[in-house]
User: Fold Amino acid transporter, APC family from Streptomyces venezuelae.
Amino acid sequence: MTTPHPDETDKGLRSGSVGLLASVALGLSSTAPAYSITVTLGYVALVVGDLAPAALLLGFVPILLTAFAFRELNREMPDCGTTFVWNTRAFGPRTGWFAGGWVPQIATLIAMAALAQVSSGYLLSLLGLRAAADDVLVVAAVAVLIVAGLTVVARRGLRVAAGLQYVLLGLQLLALIGFGAAALARDGVSSPSLSWLNPLAMDSFGSFAQAVLLCLFIYWGWDALITTNEETRDSARVPGQAAMISTLVLLGTYLFTAFAVVSFAGTGTGGIGLGNPDNATDVLASLAPPVLGDAFAKVMELAVCVSAASALLTCLVSSPRSSLSMAAHGGLPAAFARVHPRYHTPGFGTVFYGSATAAVLLTLSLLSADFLGDAILCIGLLIACYYGTTALACVWYFRKRLRESPRALFLRGVLPLAGGLLMLGAFVRSAYDMFDPAYGSTSFHGIGGVFLLGTGSLAAGAIAVLTARAAYPAFFRNGRTTVVARLVTAED
Assistant:
């Protein structure tokens, strides 16, 4: 092992800014637990009924397997570019730029626009401005202000952002745990059953696959914490440990909430039942009044509001750092590598992503509310693409060292390979389902709008690679060498 000269590896970020606890908080916050569970659990229950906990558990499996790949790759190559650097080292600069750079950045940008809109809508509702909350342009305008405020926080530094995340995440987890405990304590509630964890009870492979694909979304985002690895104490180990801890905490929180909701509401098609389509888009808002009463139900609305804002803040921290690495390695304009002299953050990149989020939000809001909704649904295709590619990159990168020990074979080979194949299978299944014009709210000449948005994003990425290759020939010619030269720790 060799360590390059510090001047070659230092990107200007402030090392040692956060520890394990702050990293876990960033990982949990980036998934927006309260928001993710309230907008997903209802749809899962519509598909598999009281087997929703089983779907949550199964959806966690490919996420956990992929997390092992992220942990092992980060141990070897702790760089804030994460998937961009790892895929470049394993498969070359074109795959690295596309699957490790473009795809996660586009997915995150769409998610940021959606998170800003959700936070804005809930905030207006909490303030009693119901008419404003139903006005698309007012919601978009307030969302832009939220993005601007969080951009300022993200630009000030990781310690400030992490400190705020403690408060926002704490409120979310307390609200979810309090809600679940109150639901289970109500008179007449059904007793939770372990049979709800039995995936073999699902009536068809189609419903099984659809439910698991829905569950992938609620776990997505934990990898954002790894982009802060160069600012984390013991950058080779702590981010990987934080990734594993955050995913396990998410699983426990989601399963507890799902058991409580199914026990309290049941899966009937009327009233508060989870089989009622009217409840699917916002399960916690539908159930909070009968569980907590009208006054405390506002706490759940606040939890979802801050959940979306918290995830947005983490995205504004992670995306600029990924772009900083791409620029430092010669794959993006040098402006993205600029670091604020006082705050030691990617100043230009943070402002760029804040502005881009506002632009995407306003554009999609002006086009159609349905269009924005379908853009959110297409994220699943992008998630499966870059998670699956990165898991396989782990296997390929370590392929000559898998026989070193049983640990290497298992953690760097078997588990990441299984995770990668499951993710790519989810990609194929997602594309198949999304092709149906009934999937989502829009269609074009008999093809689902969600499919067109997802595949269109990938096609645009292919064009972007060709453009970037012409603009940065040195990176695309010597990408692997360039990446190795700037790694904090690199193999000869």
User: Anything to note?
Assistant: Residues 1-9, 488-492 have pLDDT under 50 and may be disordered. The radius of gyration is 22 Å.
